[in-house]
């Protein structure tokens, strides 16, 4: 009779030796049989199942010294690992936060993880290191325009990206109207973006997931760091509350443009306001081997003001409370309570017009995420979450007692989801990740819904009744299944082919006529007339590593089709429309393209070159005469070159060059003169048939590590040039029409004027911008 031996588990956490930070994606393998192994999760936890016996376990993570431990396993065991950073020689500078062969061996495709040190080395506007601008240098991701942080992923609009900070939603990730993002790099640990092949645990957006984790803080010793830049300064303090058990990190950033305004001779300029600030904080405490909590928050705000006449401010706040619990060495639970808030406000004080405008939205979220390590070939993830949404579109308070206040009623909704997925190593050649997610969305009261005459357009004059709903009464319910599938086939140890499919449902979207994603954008929920977005995407890719994993090459093709896409009808009001369904039309959209990436991860010179060839189109009744038209953010070609060269142990030089086809736009056909005012005329049948000029730019930076006589103190200077060759990239085009010689036009009466020789005035936003930043770091004993 054959006897099957009972396997035992070895599990634990993998951390950084100097700070105690958990390492995401570290590998634990049986040194004698490298095909047997596991990867640590987002909290650094791993679980490996082995036959009883003696083993040598090898733990590795790129940029850290590998560690080997001999163990004799007769029963389940807990082994924690701490890895020390590797002091690489100049010939072996590592710039990847992934396993050396992950590009080929992982089931993941259409996914990129950027190391924060790599992000910090990329030259940036005014020297401000920016997570989202760095993401825009990857294939398949384009920017809204010069200086902006809005991003468009594989043909999706900016509101179709879910941006998470420690799992909390960030609804507007921009500072200073989009020129900088809200993420302070000193507080960030890990940045990962999913463009396709999105795991079942994620939902709510149809284009991408940008998952950003904050650092936990040094739990071994005090550490102070920061920087003094051209327009802002940063400071971070972190250290143990109880050594090896608890730590606290606090990080702040503020611009000081307002200080320079105060030095101006012109009093009107001195009274203006212009600044933003960020504050990140994170606390963690480990009760025992099975229980650990994390508490983190983000608070940021922008303030713009023109004397006492006009004020504008907006900001985000997020809060995350997470509890990690080990039920057993195989079952890991993360329970999360989340809060997100985004709001903005105007304060106007001009002659005959004085009011305050407030708008915002809140999200309350409770999540349960389980990892079950069934065996070395199957890791099962499952969970559920519930989100309560509150939308406050507008509340306008007049400062004139003779003018009544205005406001739009709040909207309320409840969003839920359940998911299960399995990462399945079928064989050494074939791996699968498959899963299913069910999501639902309930629009609830208090609410009132207009009823329109059947067969007639949704318009004010066609309202025949109103349905009124009390608090928590169901207004409209949507739900659906979201299947996910990823396949990886290893041709050999250096080559693989991958494919993926995912369906995503999105129940919230932005009402905006702009592209860049401004703070005033209005988020609207699915309701009785506006259906949820449905996005399906298939992707196929070839991945190759060579020269001992120093070089990576990948080619991916994708096709995405989208249902219930909303666009806004010409001339319709958005911000103050209490019947938003009258201003929109629904239709379909599709996007397809190819992405090419070649990357060098090791050596004195590192970096990547990416190229994207893409097309995005829409077709919506009532827009462009019902014909297909290009999306506003369609860009045929997009190229990025990102390089870094280590000159010596003190100096490094980095640079990037970008090129993109100009965005699709609608130019005016002429103008109307009404009450003496010239108003542009647009032919909607020609929507987005023109293009802005092509965009290209080069940035360079030099990083100089300074000598320090004080032990534990490091400091450096960063010199950068944004737009190094002074390219005048067009930010806006203004058309000045010249009256034609049309005999039917009477200049003494108001009427349409079509210009045969329109003059255009092109405005460039930035020339060459030099900047200097001083960075420092002090580590206690």
TrEMBL record:
<keyword id="KW-1134">Transmembrane beta strand</keyword>
<keyword id="KW-0813">Transport</keyword>
<dbReference type="InterPro" id="IPR039426">
    <property type="entry name" value="TonB-dep_rcpt-like"/>
</dbReference>
<keyword id="KW-0176">Collagen</keyword>
<keyword id="KW-0998">Cell outer membrane</keyword>
<dbReference type="Pfam" id="PF13715">
    <property type="entry name" value="CarbopepD_reg_2"/>
</dbReference>
<dbReference type="InterPro" id="IPR037066">
    <property type="entry name" value="Plug_dom_sf"/>
</dbReference>
<dbReference type="InterPro" id="IPR036942">
    <property type="entry name" value="Beta-barrel_TonB_sf"/>
</dbReference>
<dbReference type="Pfam" id="PF07715">
    <property type="entry name" value="Plug"/>
</dbReference>
<keyword id="KW-0472">Membrane</keyword>
<protein>
    <submittedName>
        <fullName>Collagen-binding protein</fullName>
    </submittedName>
</protein>
<keyword id="KW-0812">Transmembrane</keyword>
<dbReference type="InterPro" id="IPR012910">
    <property type="entry name" value="Plug_dom"/>
</dbReference>
<comment type="similarity">
    <text>Belongs to the TonB-dependent receptor family.</text>
</comment>
<dbReference type="InterPro" id="IPR008969">
    <property type="entry name" value="CarboxyPept-like_regulatory"/>
</dbReference>
<feature type="domain" description="TonB-dependent receptor plug">
    <location>
        <begin position="128"/>
        <end position="205"/>
    </location>
</feature>
<keyword id="KW-0732">Signal</keyword>
């Amino acid at each position: 009779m054959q006897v099957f031996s009972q396997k035992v588990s070895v599990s634990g956490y993998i951390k950084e030796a100097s700070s105690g930070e958990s390492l995401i994606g570290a590998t634990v393998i049986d040194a004698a049989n490298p095909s047997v192994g596991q990867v640590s999760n987002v909290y650094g936890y791993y679980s490996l199942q082995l036959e009883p016996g003696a083993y040598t376990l090898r733990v590795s993570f790129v940029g850290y010294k590998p560690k080997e431990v001999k163990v004799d396993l007769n029963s389940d065991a807990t082994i924690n690992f701490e890895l020390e950073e590797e002091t690489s020689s100049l010939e072996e500078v590592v710039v990847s936060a992934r396993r050396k062969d992950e590009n080929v061996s992982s089931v993941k495709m259409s996914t990129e993880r950027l190391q924060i040190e790599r992000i910090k080395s990329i030259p940036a506007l005014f020297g401000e290191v920016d997570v989202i601008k760095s993401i825009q240098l990857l294939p398949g991701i384009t920017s809204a325009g010069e200086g902006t942080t809005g991003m468009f992923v594989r043909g999706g609009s900016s509101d179709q990206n879910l941006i998470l900070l420690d799992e909390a939603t960030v609804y507007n990730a921009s500072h200073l109207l989009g020129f900088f993002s809200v993420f302070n790099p000193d507080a960030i640990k890990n940045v990962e973006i999913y463009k396709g092949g999105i795991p079942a645990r994620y939902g709510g957006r149809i284009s991408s997931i940008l998952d950003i984790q904050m650092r936990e803080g040094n739990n071994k010793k005090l550490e102070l760091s920061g920087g003094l830049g051209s327009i802002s300064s940063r400071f971070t303090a972190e250290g143990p509350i109880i050594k090896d058990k608890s730590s606290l990190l606090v990080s702040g950033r503020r611009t000081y443009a307002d200080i320079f305004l105060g030095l101006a001779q012109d009093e009107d300029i001195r009274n203006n306001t212009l600044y933003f600030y960020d504050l990140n904080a994170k606390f963690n405490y480990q009760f025992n081997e099975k229980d650990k909590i994390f508490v983190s928050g983000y608070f940021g705000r922008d303030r713009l003001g023109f004397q006492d006449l006009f004020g504008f401010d907006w900001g985000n706040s997020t809060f995350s409370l997470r509890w990690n619990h080990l039920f057993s060495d195989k079952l890991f639970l993360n329970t999360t309570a989340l809060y997100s808030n985004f709001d903005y406000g105007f304060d106007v004080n001009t002659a005959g017009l004085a009011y305050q405008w407030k708008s915002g939205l809140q999200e309350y979220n409770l999540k349960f995420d389980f990892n079950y390590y069934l065996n070395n070939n199957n890791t099962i993830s499952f969970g559920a979450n519930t989100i309560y949404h509150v939308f406050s579109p507008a509340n306008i308070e007049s400062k004139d007692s003779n003018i009544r206040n205005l406001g739009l009623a709040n909207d309320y909704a409840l969003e839920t989801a359940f998911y299960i997925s399995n990462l399945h190593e079928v064989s050494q050649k074939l791996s699968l990740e498959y899963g299913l997610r069910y999501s639902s969305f309930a629009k609830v009261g208090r609410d009132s819904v207009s009823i329109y005459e059947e067969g007639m357009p949704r318009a004010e004059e066609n309202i025949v009744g109103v349905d009124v709903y009390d608090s928590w009464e169901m207004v409209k319910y949507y739900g659906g299944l979201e299947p996910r599938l990823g396949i990886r086939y290893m041709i050999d140890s250096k080559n693989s082919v991958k494919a993926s499919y995912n369906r995503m449902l999105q129940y919230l979207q932005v009402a905006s006529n702009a592209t860049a994603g401004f703070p005033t954008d209005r988020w609207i929920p699915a309701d009785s007339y506006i259906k949820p977005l449905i996005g399906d995407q298939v992707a196929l890719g070839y991945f190759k590593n060579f020269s001992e994993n120093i070089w990576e090459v990948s080619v991916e093709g994708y096709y995405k089709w989208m249902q219930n896409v909303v666009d806004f009808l010409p001339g319709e009001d958005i911000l103050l429309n209490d019947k938003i369904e009258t201003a929109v039309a629904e239709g379909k959209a599709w996007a397809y393209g190819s992405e090419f990436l070649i990357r060098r991860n090791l050596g004195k010179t590192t970096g990547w070159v990416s190229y994207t060839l893409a097309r995005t189109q829409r077709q919506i009744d009532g827009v462009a005469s019902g014909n297909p038209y290009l999306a506003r953010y369609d860009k045929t070609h997009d190229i990025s070159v990102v390089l870094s060269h280590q000159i010596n142990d003190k100096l490094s030089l980095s640079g990037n060059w970008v090129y993109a086809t100009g965005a699709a736009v609608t130019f005016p056909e002429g103008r109307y003169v009404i009450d003496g005012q010239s108003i542009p005329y647009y032919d909607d049948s020609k929507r987005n048939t023109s293009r802005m000029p092509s965009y290209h730019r080069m940035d360079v930076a030099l990083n100089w590590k300074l000598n320090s006589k004080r032990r534990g103190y490091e400091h450096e200077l960063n010199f950068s040039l944004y737009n190094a060759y002074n390219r005048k990239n067009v930010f806006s085009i203004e058309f000045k029409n010249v009256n034609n010689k049309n005999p039917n036009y009477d200049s003494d009466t108001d009427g349409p004027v079509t210009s045969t020789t329109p003059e255009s005035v092109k405005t460039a936003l930035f020339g060459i911008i030099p900047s200097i930043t001083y960075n420092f770091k002090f580590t206690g004993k």
